[in-house]
Amino acid sequence: MQNSEMWLDGIMGVIIGDALGCPVQFVPRAEIREGGLIEEMEGHGTYDMPEGTWTDDGSMTLALLSSIKETGTIDLPDIMERFESWLREGAYTPFGKAFDIGGATIEALVKYRSYPDVTTCGGTDEYDNGNGSLMRILPACLYAYAKGMEEEEAVRMIHEVSALTHNHLRSKIACGLYYYCTCAVLGGEGTLAQRLQQGMDKGFEHYRRDILNLTELSYYGRLKDLTEFAKVPEEKIKSSGYVVDTMEAVIWCLITTDSFRACELKAVNLGDDTDTVAAIAGGLAGLYYHYESMPEEWLSVIQKRDWIEELCRGL
């Protein structure tokens, strides 16, 4: 796969998932079912936004992508400045105003504004393990893959990008596992489930090398054997804003469907943190099924579609 193609595949997958989930964010699973399952891109709902509107997930992903494209590297202070522009000026948003902003992200940006140190701004408390770094990590994963970075260097960089807002090891491990899955989807062989298993195998092998990782790694134990995990019934899958729940929901949607469309709809219909689960799943689904598989009726209503697609070119 050419690098230029993977950027469009993955990033547009994130944006579509985010926009698909935006209208029903925070709506409980049971309530979605009572009102009828989501089957198409819709508008309004939770934030009363038009069809194709992305939220903080997409905005922060695009901010990170813009930094990589313009600096040619992972420049942590530059990334934080772009996050600041998003929060305070509405940069990287559909309509010039940031919305749906996570608490840990706001705290990190406020802290950085007072004391601009990229190593200390992210939250380190156990309660700082929301999904706010996992939801935007894909551009960093693609950068590491495109550069052919050595494993240790790549994981260290992924952790640093996560730590800008979420500096607890549990969140950083989620981002690291997502990186391994990204590499496996792009460079592995077999079905999507087989590639994700290859990614998880390498990720668990990496984190098990350091005894200090074992306690936090254990939170992701259900993801070690994806054949067994695929058998877990939906009622045992949570789709909250907690990073472990999110990682599980993402992988479960990917391995229990066979198309981009089916994966995204399954993610959204889990309810609760719909936009984030669908965005994170959409990144990997996009890399595997590719841009051409994304429904045109969804793509056609994505706000600022041309700008996003242009941003993905020339990387």
Q: What is the rounded distance between the termini?
A: 14 Å
Structural class: mainly alpha
Radius of gyration: 18 Å
Q: Spell the H/E element sequence.
A: HHHHHHHHHHHHHHHH
Helix-strand blueprint:
Blueprint: H1 3-21, H2 29-35, H3 56-71, H4 76-89, H5 103-114, H6 138-147, H7 151-163, H8 169-187, H9 192-208, H10 214-217, H11 226-229, H12 243-255, H13 260-268, H14 274-289, H15 296-299, H16 305-312
Helix pairs in contact: 1-3, 1-6, 1-13, 1-14, 3-4, 3-6, 4-5, 6-7, 6-8, 7-8, 8-9, 12-13, 12-14, 13-14
Summary?
This protein is 59% helix and 0% strand.
Task: Give an account of the 3D structure.
The longest helix is centred in the first third of the chain and has 19 residues, at 3-21. It contains 16 helices and no strands. By secondary structure, it is an all-alpha fold. The mean pLDDT is 96. The two termini are 14 Å apart. The protein has helices at residues 3-21, 29-35, 56-71, 76-89, 103-114, 138-147, 151-163, 169-187, 192-208, 214-217, 226-229, 243-255, 260-268, 274-289, 296-299, 305-312.
Give the tags.
single chain; 315 residues; mainly alpha; 16 helices; globular
